[in-house]
Write a structure and sequence with these properties.
The chain is of the alpha+beta class. The protein has one domain (about 5-35, about 45-165): Jelly Rolls, CATH 2.60.120. It contains four helices and eleven strands. Strands 1, 2, 3, 4, 6, 7, 8, 9 and 10 form a nine-stranded antiparallel beta sheet that branches. Strands 5-11 form a two-stranded antiparallel ribbon. Strand 6 and strand 7 (about 120-125) form a beta hairpin. It is globular and about 40 Å long. The two termini are about 20 Å apart.
Length: about 190
């Protein structure tokens, strides 16, 4: 389940309803899918993953005008991993939505709202579906295990192109992932 952290407000959200509601106020779609409910085994091929999620992929394509999907598989053995991550972890935006359905691993999206609101982080894990709208300033980091596998959907067959802001906003935030187990349960009625 995703965790949202808003450092400027010293606030974290770790329940699915609170996460979805907060992200919706920022134009970001979030859904929770139970990982493992598709009959996939560890090490499943990209084609097997796309087949297992074909109904959801088709639904997302119809809703968002996406024309293609693939699977990104990043792990510590990925060639030139640090160079790849350098492209992701600098603040940028895209001409199309960034849609990710996380199949394995964890990662951290930082969002820099255009309205001047506080930067916030969304830690995603297996079963999380996120849609960051086109034009949203953001950056992405892997968690300490440096592992993520996700279905990506694109509105242009050439994939996404980052437009870097060079704002430096990404330099003031640590890529720390804690996961929902880090946060104690909220008191009743809180």
């Amino acid at each position: 389940m995703a965790v949202v952290r808003i450092p400027e407000e010293n606030r974290s959200l770790s329940d699915a309803g609170g996460v979805a509601a907060y992200l919706a106020t920022r134009g970001i779609d979030y859904e929770r899918w139970a990982p493992g409910d598709r009959g996939l085994t560890a090490g499943a091929t990209a084609d097997a993953i796309l087949r297992a999620y074909s109904d959801k992929i088709d639904q997302l394509k119809a809703q968002g005008g996406y024309v293609t999907a693939d699977v990104i598989d990043v792990n510590p053995a990925t060639p030139h991993l640090d160079a790849m991550l350098a492209r992701f972890n600098a603040e940028h935006w895209h001409d199309e939505d960034e849609v990710r359905l996380i199949v394995e691993g964890r990662g951290l999206f930082h969002i820099h709202p255009a309205d001047g609101g506080p930067v916030f982080a969304i830690e995603v894990e297996a079963g999380d579906l996120i849609r960051v709208p086109r034009g949203t300033h953001h950056w992405f980091d892997l968690c300490s295990d440096r592992r993520i596998r996700a279905i990506r959907l694109f509105q242009d067959v050439s994939g996404w192109t980052p437009h870097y802001t060079n704002s430096g906003a990404d330099k003031g935030f640590q890529p720390l992932c804690f996961g929902p187990q880090y946060f104690p349960p909220s008191p009743a009625g809180a």
